[in-house]
Amino acid sequence: MLTSTTTRADARALDGRRARRTAETASLGWKLLLLKITVLGLLNAASVYAAMVLFFNERWLIGTLVVVTGALITWIYFQRGALPAKYLAPGVTFLLIFQVFVILYSGYVAFTNYGTGHNSTKEHAIHAIMLQTQDRVPDSPTYPLTVVERSGELAFAVTAQEGEVLVGSADAPLEAIDGALVEEGRIVDVPGHTVLSFTELMERQQELSTLAVPLDEDPNAGALRTQDGQRAYVYTSRFVYDESSDTMTNTESGETYTDGGEGAFVTESGEQLMPGWRVNVGLDNFVRAITEESIRGPLLYVTAWTFAFAFLSVASTFVLGLFLAIVFNDPRMRSRRYYRLVMILPYAFPGFLSALVWAGMMNQEFGFINSVLFGGAAIPWLSDPWLAKLSILIVNLWLGFPYMFLVCTGALQSIPEELTEAAQMDGARPFQAFRQIKFPLLLVSIAPLLISSFAFNFNNFNLVYMLTGGGPRDIEAGINVGSTDILISMVYKVAFVGAQSDYGLASAFSILIFFIVGTISVIAFRRTRALEELN
Amino acid sequence: MTVNTRRFTAMTAFLGAGALALTACGSGGESPGAASAEPTETADAAQTADAEASGSLTVWADANRAEVLADVATDFEADTGIAVEIVQQDFEEIRDQFVSQVPTGEGPDIAVGAHDWLGVLVDNGVVAPVELGDAAEDFEQIAVDAWTYEGQTYGLPYSIENIALLRNTELAPEAPADFEEMIEMGEEAGTEYPFLVGLDPNESDPYHLYPFQTSFGAPVFGTADDGSYDSTELAMGDAGGEDFAAWLAEQGEAGVLNLNIDGDLAQESFNDGSAPFFLTGPWNVTAAQEAGIDVAVDPIPAAGDQPAQPFAGVQGFFLSSQSENVLAASNFLVNYVGTAEVQTALYETGGRAPALSESFEEALGEDEIVAGFGEVGAEAVPMPAIPEMGAVWDDWGASQAAIIKGDGDPVELWQKMSEDIAAAID
């Protein structure tokens, strides 16, 4: 009776408060509306600007998406009602940008040859090849240069060694001209031409940097080019690009390079001209991962170790965490709260920091473990292939058990003590009672966490990277892979370590990892349903 | 009330979304000009350039360089009216950022870097040659050689960096003539270690051990006619390499080369006087001097019967192949950054020997330490820049570590390594 009175009094107080707040809100309404209009206005202004920039760059798809998203968001927030949509809109937008886009993009990269040497578009590649194969004619002189203009067309005016002034443009080879005025070695006036000022040069630098003035009628003599607008040098082009047949020809050897469809110009004998460009290669990356011996061997080895690592990590942390949880859950234990606090400490430090500290402690000669705990023994914790695996597991146990300890403690406390008591009344021994009553109930709530922990450890990049860097390196393997590398650290090495990055192959690997983790999770979650039937 | 709280939460989230959109277009805003840099659309590009007539240069540099460049940039802007925007980047990040940003049109016009990035930059087509012209003769030969890749010069060098032997003059008054003498002197000094070099337990350090390798007549690659590396000819698998491998195993056994002493530990031990000799670069000198060690810089003692040549790393500035401001950028490089004044200023903040001969001589005359490193540098060879070097370093280091640890026959391990590297380069 007493309880219900309090409840009613509470309810009345609550009503009063609610009424007061509603009154406040009514007067606040126009301010909020103003805020809403301002924010949406800013957002729309930003998206219209972004869309204009994108359209200007002919990125139609992304530009359209920006406009559509902006309009959609405005519409949602000016709706009456539609509360779920108002809740979901920001989250969904962020999800699309940060998750879905990233996934789709790596999916796309997995089907391309993106990596060192295949970095950009074909236009860029041709441009770069042309730039890189302009050879300065050996021992050719430097020509002091003045850039001039005649009816809009740029021309070079240079002083030859004999002191005479030569003028030429893209179509007209160099020719001597009379009446030019030279002051202090610089040509300041050319009849029939206008001398360009520095500012004018800067305005036309694109045009100027591609201008080649033939030395004479013979195209093999080379052409004058300038990079700074003040000096010109004679260059010959090692390669000529023919747009109509889409081929590169080496002017020295006469060899022709054609676009072989694999993102580079190749000769008939298969020699590639670098840089190439990005193209779609279909399933090539996946095929390579599976068929190429130098990749397949390490890949299988690393996959096996990744499974072992993830499984052993989950198992060891779970066993230790559960054990400690049971011990500290026993009412007979004194000062449990303080012990629990200490147990959680490893969880409170950033994981990568702990891994670095452990790496120092495991130094063969100067580390704490060898020099203090083992009295100066030289145990190669991190440089022996098997000990390094053990070290990784030990450190992961240290990092991981507090989490398991926490969740097990929570789960244990939610299981009614009466169940154990009832079992004991029925004559079960304590261990039997635990194994057959408590443990299955515990698993109901813990099993999904074990699965997520498995998925986490499957991709536990920080630990591997900070503790061993994947090493010790397996010198037998054809690619850079060590005996503690897990799939994700191997992917990282393929994509970013060393100079030969292969983003395509790395993305293909990450897609494979996604499918492995996904499959395991689905199977495991199905299994846990069986546990739930216990309830 | 509840409704209002929700609305407020939604608004907050929304503000975030707005900010995000703004950021997105902030980066998009730079691209209208950049995207029109297609080589085929020269006329269009020129018109776009017209719109932003005075134009501006973007330079990526690390913190040390950025400071000096800021002064040069002011001069350049005063003279030409072209603004130079200096963007600070982490030195280590510049290469990969440059490779991925240049194709999108968001890259800089000029960036600072090390010459051994060239292989990757060239293969990705993101870097354009720089014509130094007659100015090339004003630079130290090794600096220009290092920035020359497949016959083209790709950068304006500014500093040369190499390792040398640091000596604690209190513990060892004389410079050793060869490796054996150094170890003897080190043992006589009665310190904890006779000699220090920072290594890694799993990857050794082929860069620091390279002078010993060359002293056995085992350079990494053969030399082509023009003096550059011939990466098709892997020379370290030869007899000299095998001798070096045997020597490594010997030193590992004797404990002279200790994989467990990493760079930090070596520096610490040298600074507290636990060793008279330390094979390292100029980057560790300041700390040693601050620790009160009287440091002398000596040539690296040879372990074999040939001179010990370390690798030289040459830092420089390079041009983007997609730059729309080629003219302004090369003017800035050759006529401003390439001057003695700027090279000396860069030397003063960076502490590495300048690449311009005039500044180089001046620095050598001024400072004994720089002179010591400079003299060793004169013997040095540029680090190879081929893109496959990444793979080479990996194999090289892992095998050296295995040899020093005594995991198997040194010569067999060395041969296996040479075969793997040869396969990786092909």
Automatic annotation (TrEMBL), chain A:
<feature type="transmembrane region" description="Helical">
    <location>
        <begin position="60"/>
        <end position="78"/>
    </location>
</feature>
<feature type="transmembrane region" description="Helical">
    <location>
        <begin position="390"/>
        <end position="412"/>
    </location>
</feature>
<comment type="similarity">
    <text>Belongs to the binding-protein-dependent transport system permease family. MalFG subfamily.</text>
</comment>
<protein>
    <recommendedName>
        <fullName>Maltose/maltodextrin transport system permease protein</fullName>
    </recommendedName>
</protein>
<dbReference type="InterPro" id="IPR000515">
    <property type="entry name" value="MetI-like"/>
</dbReference>
<dbReference type="InterPro" id="IPR047103">
    <property type="entry name" value="MalF_P2_sf"/>
</dbReference>
<feature type="transmembrane region" description="Helical">
    <location>
        <begin position="299"/>
        <end position="326"/>
    </location>
</feature>
<feature type="transmembrane region" description="Helical">
    <location>
        <begin position="87"/>
        <end position="111"/>
    </location>
</feature>
<keyword id="KW-0762">Sugar transport</keyword>
<dbReference type="Pfam" id="PF16296">
    <property type="entry name" value="TM_PBP2_N"/>
</dbReference>
<feature type="transmembrane region" description="Helical">
    <location>
        <begin position="503"/>
        <end position="525"/>
    </location>
</feature>
<keyword id="KW-1133">Transmembrane helix</keyword>
<keyword id="KW-0813">Transport</keyword>
<feature type="transmembrane region" description="Helical">
    <location>
        <begin position="338"/>
        <end position="361"/>
    </location>
</feature>
<dbReference type="InterPro" id="IPR035906">
    <property type="entry name" value="MetI-like_sf"/>
</dbReference>
<dbReference type="InterPro" id="IPR035277">
    <property type="entry name" value="MalF_N"/>
</dbReference>
<comment type="function">
    <text>Part of the ABC transporter complex MalEFGK involved in maltose/maltodextrin import. Probably responsible for the translocation of the substrate across the membrane.</text>
</comment>
<dbReference type="InterPro" id="IPR032550">
    <property type="entry name" value="TM_PBP2_N"/>
</dbReference>
<keyword id="KW-0812">Transmembrane</keyword>
<feature type="transmembrane region" description="Helical">
    <location>
        <begin position="439"/>
        <end position="458"/>
    </location>
</feature>
<feature type="domain" description="ABC transmembrane type-1">
    <location>
        <begin position="303"/>
        <end position="524"/>
    </location>
</feature>
<dbReference type="Pfam" id="PF00528">
    <property type="entry name" value="BPD_transp_1"/>
</dbReference>
<feature type="transmembrane region" description="Helical">
    <location>
        <begin position="28"/>
        <end position="54"/>
    </location>
</feature>
<keyword id="KW-1003">Cell membrane</keyword>
<keyword id="KW-0472">Membrane</keyword>
